Amino acid sequence: MPIAISAKNLVKKYGDVVALDGLSLNVEQGTVYGLLGPNGAGKTTTVRVLTTLLMPDSGEANVSGVDVIKDPEHAREIIGLSGQNASVDENLTGRENLVMLGRLFRLPKKEAIEKAVNLLERFNLTDAANRIVKTYSGGMRRRLDLAASLIANPNILFLDEPTTGLDPRSRMMMWDVIENLVKEGTTVLLTTQYLEEADQLADKIAVIDRGKVIAEGTADELKAQVGGERIEVVVAENDSARAAQALQEMASGKVIIDGERVKVPVSGGGAKIVDAVRALDVAKIEIKEIQLRRPTLDDVFLSLTGHVAEEVKTEDEAPKKKGRH
Ligand SMILES: Nc1ncnc2c1ncn2[C@@H]1O[C@H](COP(=O)(O)OP(=O)(O)OP(=O)(O)O)[C@@H](O)[C@H]1O
Ligand SMILES: [Mg+2]
Does this model's pTM top 0.85? Predict the structure, then answer.
């Protein structure tokens, strides 16, 4: 597969703050690449560099083989961007915004209108088409913003946190739209703080922290790095050593005792729960709780970075609460 987006050793500093610290990535054509990281990790900065809005201090960036830094105008013809700070005009209607953008992209008036009508339909905004954007809900604005980025039929689409702040239903709808775009051949780079979103949409995920890619792979590969499935049993604390002993035989690795909780690495999934219950029954140990745990991307982030995906603090900003879902 040809590479649609590539970044090599991108560095960007703001005074003492190192926003990008040698970031590299490659996105294959026709795939979805998820940039996953907490607040301040460098996601927006990466997107801004790749979309020609920001010059890096050093490093290289290409879209479809076009040098983003040396030839930004050409690069802009290839890409679409739906940003964290939406670019639509609040005082125009949804329809006016899209028609105006179509005109900016030099579509003849009739085509610009047709395109706007189609996109409004596709994003379920037809009923709100003639209202000014100021009156839109957050979800409607996100949808309009994504619609706006599709006016020029981009082959490569950058989506900076496309679903942050959306309710579950709007999020699903956004996922659907993105999945359909990819089916039609669009290459998508999206950023997200939602581990499940990267899991759902991305063919490949890069976990970024402090301006660097700290891990890359499919969701399954990343999960495998943290270890596979395990059964967790809660027993009376003075039973846990005996429980560990009883369960060791069925385990695929070393059983870990954590207070009253006994963690048993297994392969084979749900069926192993039955084995565990039997083994504990034979040993006459009462089970307070038992469950099969599959690693989530939350676990991945924690094990890679040593902190959960929610910390953020900048001087002028209260810590934002987002990230863990
Ligand atoms: N214009 C700027 N001036 C100074 N520092 C900046 C500027 N833009 C970004 N930074 C800093 O660069 C770092 C990376 O910011 P960036 O916006 O890329 O993070 P992010 O991963 O998009 O975070 P979020 O999830 O909050 O959107 C942060 O420490 C941020 O404070
Ligand atoms: Mg951001």
Answer: no
